[in-house]
Every structure is written in C-alpha cells, then in structure tokens.
Amino acid sequence: MNAVTTIAQEPLVVTEIPGPKSREIHARRQAVVPVGVHSVVPVYIERAHGSVVVDVDGNHIVDVCGGIGVTTIGHTDDAVVAAATEQLSQVTHTLFTMTPYESYVRVAELLAQHFPGEGPAKTLLMNSGAEAVENGVKIARKFTGRPGVAVLEHAYHGRTLLTSSMNHKAAPYALGYGPRVGNIYKAPNSYPLRDGLSGAEAAARTIEYLEKMAGAEDLACLVVEPVQGEGGFITSAEGYLPALAAWCRDNGVLFISDEVQAGMGRTGTMFAIEQFGVQPDIVLTAKGIAGGLPLAGITGRAEIMDASQPGGLGGTFGGNPVSCAAAVAVFEQIERDDLLARAKHIEQVFGDALRGLAAKHESIAEVRGIGAMLAIEIVKPGTLEHDTDLTQRVISRAVQQGVLLLNAGVSGNVIRFLPSLQFTDELITTVVRVLDDAFTAESA
Ligand SMILES: *Cc1c(COP(=O)(O)O)cnc(C)c1O
Q1: Whose CA is closest to atom 5 on ligand 1?
Q2: Which atom of ligand 1 sits closest to the CA of residue 229?
C-alpha cells in the first residue's frame, strides 16, 4: 500500500479555489511558461489517488476529467505504481529500435488480442495521441499508395502540424501556424441533436461529400473518433459508422478508429468501435493506455502495418519501458476488477442522474455518450442556441465546491464527464448534486 491511498474519496474545500499557494505558483509560471500553454483550471495539484486530486492548498477535488480520460482506472492505481516503480529500478531506456525489451512485445500482444478488427494485428508504440494519428496516416499512405486523408466535422486529432490541420477548430489549434497540411478532406458528420438525420442519411451526405471533394481513389484513410471527444462527445446516429466503414471497404480506403479518448475500456468495451458493429483497419490508442504515463499505440491488420520498410517507423522514446510496464498493469486491472462492467454501470447510474437533471433544467438539451464518457449539451431554453456562458459559470461554480469538470464542443457549450472506472455511486450523487445547485443558481 502506498501512502496516497489514504486520500478520502470525497470533496473537501479548505480555501478559495485556486488558493493562495496555487496563485503564488501561477504568478511564477507567468514569467517562464508561454501563454499558448493554457491551463483551464489554474489549481496546482500535489497528489492524487482514485478519483480525487489534492491541490497545494490542501483542497480535495473530485476529478471528473481524469486529465482528459487518461486516468481511466484511477489516479496512482496501486498496481500501476508498483509495476512502474519496479521497472524504474530495472531499466528506464534502451531505445526499442536499437536494443529491445520484452514489455513492448507484451503490450503489442495485448493490443493484438483485443484488436477490434480482423486479425492478426501488429502494433507500433509511440508517446502521444497526436503521434498515434501521425503514424496511422503514414502507415495508411504507405499501404494504399494514396495521399488523401478524410476526417469529420467536429473532429479533434492533436496539435502537431499534421493533426492540427485535421481538427475542426482552426482556433486555437491551427490559426497562425500555417501553411496547413494539404490533402485533408473534412466531411460533414452525424450529429443527431442538430442535423435530425438518420444514420443512413448522414452517411450518404458524408460519402457524397468525400466522393465529390476528394475522390475515393485518392483517399488513403478515413480517420474517425467513434465518439467525438473534444467535439462534445457527439455520438453518431445508428448505422452511420457501419455505412462509412462499408463504403471505405468497397473503395480501398482504410478505416482508422481514433480511440485516443474513447478507448481502453472507457465506454464499456475495450474499444468503443466494437459497440458500433464496425471492424476498423487500424485503431489508435493513447490517453488511457498506461495509467498516466505517456504511451500510444497504432494497432492494425498485419499486412497494413508491415507495408512500411524497416526504419520507417519509430522514435527515441516510443514504447518506453516504464510506460509499457504501466500499460501491462492497466490491462490486468481492467480484467481483474471487471472494469468494462463498471463502465456500463457508470453509464446507467450517471446517465440516469444526468437525465434527471435534464428533466429539471431546461438549459440541458441532451444527455449523450456511452460508458464512462458522458456529456450534457447546454443551450438557451427552448432553442438549440449554444449557451457557452452558462456552461462556463456552472463549471466555475462546481470547482468552488470541489468538483472538477471540463467543457467540450466546438462552441464550448458541452460539459463532458470522464470519471475513472472506479468512480463510486456516492461520488456520482455528489457530482450531480453540485451540478443541480450550480444550474439552479446560475439560471436564476
Ligand atoms: C487527445 C486526443 C488526441 C491527441 O492526443 P495527445 O496525446 O494530446 O497528442 C488525438 N485524438 C483524440 C480523439 C484525442 O482525444
């Protein structure tokens, strides 16, 4: 047992948030960290366990964000800490592309075993979600010999030069960093609350757009988030993703499921795409894969992954041994604690509580998402007009009560919930009570 396991799993607010010590560090930061690196909640965290983070002023804050879906099995999970600690004292780096080690192979075996597409599958390990996307695109281009990359409206794929060109939002991600990368085609998505289209209708619109704007024979891949993360946890209409996947298959376009946010058990299956009845050619993982350590996976059908020449793929830190040891522990914990079932339980209990909230507060237009990836969209009552301002005020009020929430959506009018899969029913009740009070106070 490590000492941090004693952190009580409930909010405890002892100062104004941010408190004096956070404000002091924040002032130092202004001098040395550029403004482009923005912190949504400038509260400096000292330690964390399970679903609670403790700031430098001693406030215990319930974390419903998990560093954006990274601490899926909870902060400082004992097994992850033990595995990483042991690995730290064994070897921390050799460079897999020079002198390899077993844990990289083990992570690739686990990803192959859970690959939601047609096996056998092979995996390249990197460090970040954006690198996973970059490499997915490289691998798809190499295999198909085609240049085009298709993405959907409301997508988010990262902040590197390629991926920032794939995002829906120019500001803040791409603005001023041009020229943007070419051969990227952005097609309309399926957004049931706002487009009113069936899955088949929305897919026909996406496909028509891609055929006209890109031309199927120029496309290497379609990169899709099964549940759109930054876009606001938009969950497509039934049949939409299978129709896109069928079109991809018929046209030799690779279907890449970007599960950087939705993957690793968060939605109740190891990969979210499984719940949509689609077999992707490549699946991308990162955020939740190593319990907070940097690691990313590009897992795909062996023939696709093997199209690259030796030396074409890799990077100095890709598949770091400490991250790999942590990832193996994450896989074991998901199985041992039956966390996929926990995700479905959270979907039910948290989802019901949020639907109760929506019935009471007219500004909540919709509750959506799957598993422990849920969201509410906030509008001006009686309309579908975004209420970004109310969303911000509710989030600010919640953090003062010791509940850390995060917005999403291209207009910032969505609150997304990314609780750990260890999140208890009591914590759900606490979070929804704080939200209820915040909506009541801020709507008055
Ligand atoms: C966060 C995210 C990325 C980028 O991951 P980084 O590790 O921040 O580079 C890519 N795709 C999706 C769906 C994401 O949510």
Answers
A1: 129
A2: 15
Question: Where does residue 66 fall: left (phi above 0), alpha (psi -120 to 50 degrees), or beta otherwise?
Answer: left
Q: What is the mean pLDDT of residues 160-164?
A: 97
The dihedral built from the CA positions of residue 291, 427, 412 and 277, taken in this order, carries a sign that is positive
Q: Is ligand 1 within 6 A of the CB of residue 19?
A: no
Cβ-proximal residues to 279 (8 Å cutoff; 6+ apart), any chain? 116, 117, 118, 245
Pocket probe mutation, ligand 1, options 260, 264, 373, max atoms within 8 Å of Cβ: 260
Q: Which helix (H) or strand (E) holds 243?
A: helix 240-251
Residue 5 has a pLDDT of 56
* Statement: residue 3 has pLDDT above 80: no
Q: Is the CB of 130 under 6 A from ligand 1?
A: yes
Q: Is residue 103 within 6 Å of ligand 1 at its C-beta?
A: no
Q: With a 6 A CB cut-off, is 261 part of the ligand 1 pocket?
A: yes
Q: Given a cut of 60, is residue 4 above it in pLDDT?
A: no
Instruction: Answer with the residue of higher pLDDT: 2 or 402.
Output: 402
Does the CB atom of residue 69 touch ligand 1 within 6 A?
Answer: no
The finding on whether 258 has its CB within 6 A of some atom of ligand 1 is yes
Give the pLDDT confidence score for residue 6 in this predicted structure. Answer: 82
- Domain 81-336 sits in CATH 3.40.50.300: no
- For domain 20-76+338-443, the CATH architecture is Alpha-Beta Complex (3.90)
How far, CA to CA in Å, does 164 sit from each of 65, 122, 144, 354? 22, 26, 23, 32
pLDDT score of 434 more than 50? yes
Q: List, for residues 375-426, the tens digit of each pLDDT value.
A: 999 999 999 999 999 999 999 999 999 999 999 999 999 999 999 999 999 9
19 and 61 in contact (C-beta within 8 Å)?
no
Q: Whose CA is nearest to atom 15 of ligand 1?
A: 261
Sign of CA dihedral 352, 355, 360, 364: positive
Per-residue pLDDT at 27 exceeds 70:
yes
- Residue ranges of alpha helices (H) inside 308-378 are 321-336, 339-360
Domain ranges of the chain: 20-76+338-443, 81-336
